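Q: Could you write out the predicted structure for this multi-component system? I'm mainly interested in how the pieces pack against one another.
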Amino acid sequence: MRKVILIGAGHLAFHFYRQFLTCREVNLIQWYNRSLEKIDFAQSKVAVTNQLSQLKTADLYLICVSDDAIKSVSENIQNDGLIAHCAGGVPLNRLCGPSRKAVFYPLQSFTKGRDLSFNKLTFCIETSHPKDQILLEDLAKALGGVTHEFNSDKRAQMHMIAVLINNFGNHLLHLGSELSKKHNIPFHIFSLLIKETYQKALDNGPENSQTGPASRHDQKTINKHLEMLTDYDLKKLYLNLTTSIQKKHER
Amino acid sequence: MRKVILIGAGHLAFHFYRQFLTCREVNLIQWYNRSLEKIDFAQSKVAVTNQLSQLKTADLYLICVSDDAIKSVSENIQNDGLIAHCAGGVPLNRLCGPSRKAVFYPLQSFTKGRDLSFNKLTFCIETSHPKDQILLEDLAKALGGVTHEFNSDKRAQMHMIAVLINNFGNHLLHLGSELSKKHNIPFHIFSLLIKETYQKALDNGPENSQTGPASRHDQKTINKHLEMLTDYDLKKLYLNLTTSIQKKHER
């Protein structure tokens, strides 16, 4: 059973905490956060600290802090063992200090207080030593996940694609939800359409699932929509996305 | 039991055909398409024709043809009874001819050969006569759906929002899938992220679900992504969507 120390108390750290408690292969021996307030509740299950200098000796120090804090936190871990950060867009070499280094990035969007299964979750792993690769692969599997080996460059590409899919996708829903409110249309009526859109894209491939006025070059409907959009930014975005679709779906 | 005639043989018409066969409240008495080839297979279940002049007498003529063909098809239906088109972006008054007129628009993206439940499906209904409203509400319920009364203006807004959500959302996945291929990343590893993104937005509201470099004004990551995107159009789109997110999520 591996001794693990969790570092940070953001969305991801909370999910790791809960998952570690139920995972027989993991012995969570300590939880660090710079403010104790956020992790105090866990005292009955695990030792908590707000001093990096007081970290115990562990097999793995799992750093779940904001991208900008990864460097300084890692510099202050003076222990032997493996340190791994969990950020998609941050290279391995952002980690400093004397410990062995790795990346352990789960490809998912975690939210505190929202249940989310680790089953089949993809962990992107990068290490400097082959034995650490095995340690992290075992951990990912023990948590229910699957693993992929990615170097920092490839992981950066993957992170950018995740932004495109997740952040931009959610923003389209946000814009749709605001327009719905403006026109007194209950947004929940779009639920089935939203689910089917993404399920179809996953089943058949998004390149085979495109429909609508842009892909069929229906300029009459496009013009009508542009007239209906009174907000300049929204108009620009509509035009931009329509042009982008039309380049992929020529007449 | 209402006598219904189906007109057209596109994606939606195929789904109506299958659903009508299993619905006790509907008596599908005829199926019209300008080419018999597409509907010949149904001859054992329903009379088929490619002549609008040979349409039988029915309670409802359900027009499921392309937006541009709605006007000319409706002009050529010389029967009494109710004619209804099923297009989100087309006003009621596009229908011509002597019959009573209505719109019966299911808010979903149908694909031939892909199973899709009508359960809880939203039907947007517009009629000129109250008794037709009742007829179409009953039909929607018999099919398993729910109904909303929408006039043509409001339905046009709804249709535009559906384009934003469905067509543009699918396109983002398409762009993500292409980038994945380019960088040898298997696209299926994004599946769980995609599902969670949209489920979270539906559960918590997209306005409460925004994450990523744009919403936290992380200019370092944004610049890095813009450098990584070598395609000019994609760069423009990334910037455009990032700016749009930042306007909704100010520092």
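A: Regarding packing and overall arrangement: The first strand of chain A starts at residue 2 and ends at 7.
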